[in-house]
Amino acid sequence: MLCEVYDNIFPKQFIIDLDNKIKNIPLETSNISGAKDTRDRGIVGNHRLFGLCVFYRLGINRVNKLHEESEIFFDALEMIENSLGRKYYVEGIHINLQHSGCDGSPHIDSNSQYEKTIMIMSTCYWEKEWGGQFQLTNEDGTNIIEEHEYVPGRVIVIPSSHIHRGLGPKINYPYVYRTTVVFRTKPLTF
Q1: For residue range 31-45, what is the model confidence (pLDDT) as tens digits?
Q2: What is the CATH number of the domain that holds 169?
């Protein structure tokens, strides 16, 4: 299994608070996932989701974006680090939102085999029949090699260079929204 999957890192109330925070942050439609790195590998898919970059840095001392409501996302990262016994150098924190039928296309987050993507399934209430699975695919994005159900509070850690996608809620659930918080990380070497 390529994905590391962790449940029960967060208290239920924390996921409720995180979900409520996301619902009250205005999101944008300019959230393009994995566009440049995905095209560089010859993979056709990239997609536009609702979302927002909460934090982004170009280097250790250069922060380009820090959203005023970012504290809860850093709290989540600390809880993950404490639970896993690891430290992460975070390059970016992103919120993604998918509505029914809004399936992500297969993409990568980085070309580097050393970088990790950490994803929190942040919608606080979810029914299995709504869909929303997270998938890893083969190199050309045509076959699913690993799939994980959407579970509130679930944390998935993957190599950022592996092709993946998130499925939106199934089309017959038009008023359901799937949110994730994604941390893009680099190795802690300076």
Answers
A1: 666 555 555 555 555
A2: 2.60.120.620
